[in-house]
Amino acid sequence: MKQRVSRGITRGTPRQRAQLLVRDVPHELVEVLKKRAAERGRSAEAEHRLILEEALGPDTLDFWEEAAKLRAETRGRKWTNSTDLIRQDRDER
Question: Is this model's pTM higher than 0.70 or not?
Answer without folding.
Answer: no
